[in-house]
Amino acid sequence: MGRMLNKAVERLEFLGQISDNPRSLVRTYLSPANRQAAECLLGWMAELGMKTEHLSDGTVRGVLPGPEPEAKPLLLGSHLDTVINAGKYDGALGLIAALAALEELRDEGIQLPFPVHLLGFSDEEGVRFQTTYLGSRGVTGQLDPATRNRLDAAGQSQALVLATEGWHEGASEIHYEHGNVRGYVEIHIEQGRILEECDEPACVVSGINGQSRLLVTLTGRTEHAGTTPMELRRDALTAAAEAILATEKLARDQTGLVATVGKIEVLPGGSNSIPGVTSFTLDFRHPVDAERVRLLKALEDSVRKITASRQLELDWQLVQENDAVVCDAGLTADLCDALERVTGSRRQLASGAGHDGVAISKVAPVGMIFVRCRAGLSHHPEEYASPADIGVGIRVLVEFLKSLPA
Ligand code: GLV
Ligand code: MN
Ligand code: MN
Question: What is the pLDDT of residue 17?
């Protein structure tokens, strides 16, 4: 286990260096670094004796067929992409921990009695198109026309980017549907502060909170900054500022609600022109779906009042909506048994972050293991999980895999 853990930590460091930016970690959908990370993972899968393949969207798969290659596979996986200025563990940990667990089983001379597919998804974070789970939605047939038409910062649609920048040479098709998968299990850092607070290295995930992602555009009028009287202005940026503060106030006042404006664009973007158009992203999450929907409607109503009072037009565009997912009872019980054998705890936590299991839950039961991360800090370069805690996560996965019947 010690040698295998050292190798896992070295691999995390190695992947953490593969970036599109020399000064910080970033790997977005179909970027050169994303592809390089995918090739690196394919190499490690091949070293383990897996049959490897890739999709044109940059998602990769390694297959261990087992004694009955036609039996329903167990899927393991996580994502290869990162946010902007990311840490090294979000996504990468799940892939490297799964490889380490499979290596451990091989070294113990254990062949699992069912096929295992390890999947590295090329997009989970949704940075390039502000729409998430492109990889896991892709392999489960859930990419709808609205998603395919989403534009990146250069104004290119997802469909066009896939056609022009995709990894087409030698690409496979991978498709999972309801009934042909045994389950999906992912290891991920916890990203909150709860495991630190309760001083436990790992836990099992009970479910994943729902989220809505929106693009909000306010349109007023661009005019001269030096000559337009203050009372005649239709300034889209000051209205957006009011709307963003209303968002923050709502989320502070409502238990369970978290809401974030992470990206804003101001046009025309000159210091001496009044902003005529302002667009911002809105990430809106709540553990209870009905409450998320109700509170989002309440926010929309107040933003409409703000824009109407300033004579602005409002485009309130829902980009993506995912209901909360409850992890599968059977997988969760087996994961809790495995956790208990390793740490003595059966702790379960709900995930505030989104994960590929949300998309995969449409076709298969999902289960997850969380590993403590320092101070709960994530989507930040100082994100860190200790080798000891990573080792616990890997051991839980090994125990779980050993416990599954044919
Ligand atoms: C993924 O990290 C998300 O929850 O946005
Ligand atoms: Mn993330
Ligand atoms: Mn993640």
Answer: 98
Percent of the chain with pLDDT over 70: 100
**Model pLDDT, residue 3:** 87
Q: How many residues are given for the chain?
A: 406
In the chain, the domains with their CATH numbers are: 2-209+324-403 (3.40.630.10), 210-322 (3.30.70.360)
Angle 387-403/329-343 helices, nearest 10 degrees?
A: 130
Q: How confident is the model at residue 2 (pLDDT cuts 50, 70, 90)?
A: confident
Ligand 1 neighbourhood includes 125 CB (under 6 angstroms): yes
Q: Which residue is it, tokens 């030096």?
A: 226
| Alpha-carbon span 134 to 20, nearest angstrom | 19
**Cα(130)–Cα(260) distance, rounded to whole angstroms?**
13
The pLDDT of residue 187: 98
How is residue 55 annotated by DSSP?
A: B
- CA torsion angle 345 200 372 205 (round to 10): 30
Secondary structure (3-state) at 315: strand
Task: Say if residues 207 and 326 touch (Cβ distance below 8 Å).
Answer: yes
Task: Output the CA 203–ligand 1 centroid distance in Å.
Answer: 19
Q: Strand (E) positions, 30-91?
A: 51-54, 60-64, 74-79
- The model's pTM is 0.95
Q: Answer whether 100 contacts ligand 1 (Cβ < 6 A).
A: no
Residue 192's pLDDT is 93
Q: Which atom of ligand 1 is nearest to the CA of 352?
A: 4
Tell me the per-residue pLDDT of 354-379, one tens digit each, with 9 for 90 and over. Answer: 999 999 999 999 999 999 999 999 99
Residue 123 Cβ contacting ligand 1 at under 6 Å = no
Q: Tell how far the Cα of 265 is from the centroid of ligand 3, in angstroms.
A: 25
Q: What is the pLDDT of residue 108?
A: 96
Pocket flag, ligand 1, residue 391 (CB < 6 Å): no
Q: Which two tokens stand for residue 239?
A: 């209205």
**Which two tokens mark 66?**
């087992």
Identify the pLDDT of residue 70.
Answer: 95
